[in-house]
Amino acid sequence: MSGEAYPGVGAEKTAEIVAKVEAFVRDVVIPYEVDPRQDDHGPTDALIVELKGKAREAGVLTPHILPDGQHLSQRETAAVLKASGLSILGPQAVNTAAPDEGNMFLLGKVGSPELKERFLKPLVEGKGRSAFFMTEPADDEGAGSDPSMMKTTCRRDGNHWIISGRKKFITGADGAIVGIIMAKSIEPDSEGGACMFMVDLPDPAIRTTRVLGTMDDSMPGGHAEVEIDDLRVPADQMLGEAGEGFKYAQIRLSPARLSHCMRWYGAGVRAQEIATDYVNRRKAFGKLLIDHEGVGFMLAENLIDLKQAELMIDWCADALDSGSIGTTESSMAKVAVSEALSRVADRCVQVMGGTGVTRDTMVEKFYREIRCFRIYDGPTEVHKWSLAKKIKRDWKHANA
Fold it and tell me: Domain Acyl-CoA dehydrogenase/oxidase C-terminal: where (predicted)?
């Protein structure tokens, strides 16, 4: 559970899946980008249900998990998720979006057969959305994104656990049918260990206090603040073992960080395509924009950043496929890829000038979404801090 990798399906089968996903996203999903069923917090569930229905008909729903339950390797998943990311709506349509993809991965790794049947199966079948309740408010000395400071608690009560606390930035909580809740045990023998629980949503003990207004608007349900008030969860709905929640969080978060890199890489590629088409058609000062050195050089730099991001993704995927959790590798990939793709999106806006900041193309939206990627699943600075601590530990070990 803590280290085994999925064997994958091989290069030929992967290429077949990728081709189908890319064709579906380009031919079916991209035209939906102008669909009005999108609000300040993302596409509506009605739009997502329609898109998933089309993906199901096309045979590309949840393409990284095969009908027999076999999971693609991380390297193979990377290729599929890059293709799904060519449209902001692509991951939602083919069921590779966050937080569902990460939640499915964790359930597949840790869940009992009963929990998989009850909670994983409907997610794989695209019958609803899920949410991951870990991050907490950072006010009043709250935990923020540091799970070691978690204030949400759980305690035993007969054959149940009682959970109380507050959560924030919970993507997709509003409208989800499945939740994974992380809480710190206050049982005398727990030593403050964290636990994870599977819950059906909605539940009257879980109340959304507000859905935040944010720069990004691609996630259905948005990002919510939530209060949990004496939620009763049957003991058999604990995910894995009591006190192992922090370990399970790493099992989920390391591949999840990489999955974000995969999806937003696809968006970076698409932004480059749109900008390239624009500068090869638009003229200024007597020649095409692409023939102006300042413009051409920016798109050339984008090619370099995209290739470096791709190589970093594949390197990290290989590290995860080797059987290790890969927290160091995923931190490096998260920093390198998010920063590179942010540069790519910024340059695409710049070379398109006024058009680049309008909503006449998707480039403006790609810019906003990718900018947020530098924050969630750990800001760049947090990952650099973690890597710096590892450098110090390694030095001490080498010089002991």
Answer: 243-390
CA of 269: how far to CAs of 14, 122, 261, 397, in Å?
Answer: 20, 31, 12, 41
Q: Can you spell out the DSSP letters for 118-182?
A: IIIHHHHTTS--EEEE-----STT--TT-GGG---EEEEETTEEEEEEEEEEEET-TT-SEEEEE
Computed over every residue of the chain, the mean pLDDT equals: 93
User: Using 50, 70 and 90 to split pLDDT, how confident is the model at 68?
Assistant: confident
Peptide bond preceding 36 in cis form (omega within 30 of 0) = no
Could you tell me the two tokens for 291?
């023939």
Whether residue 255 has a cis bond before it, omega within 30° of 0: no
pLDDT value, residue 213: 94
Which tokens go with 400?
A: 């002991």
- Enumerate residues 6+ apart whose C-beta is below 8 A from 204: none
**Between vectors from CA 328 to CA 366 and to CA 191, what angle results, nearest 5°?**
110
CA angle 144, 147, 152 (to 5 degrees): 80
- Decide if 250 contacts 120 (C-beta within 8 A): no
The whole-number average pLDDT for the span 117-139 is: 94
Distance CA 307, CA 329 (A): 18
How many other β-carbons are positioned within 10 Å of the β-carbon of residue 122? 15
Give the ranges where the chain is alpha helix by DSSP (H): 11-24, 45-58, 74-84, 90-94, 100-110, 113-115, 121-124, 245-279, 293-321, 327-351, 353-356, 363-373, 380-398
How far is residue 219's CA from residue 40's CA, in Å, rounded to a whole number?
10
Distances in Å between the alpha carbon of 388 and those of 15, 102, 249, 309?
38, 26, 21, 21
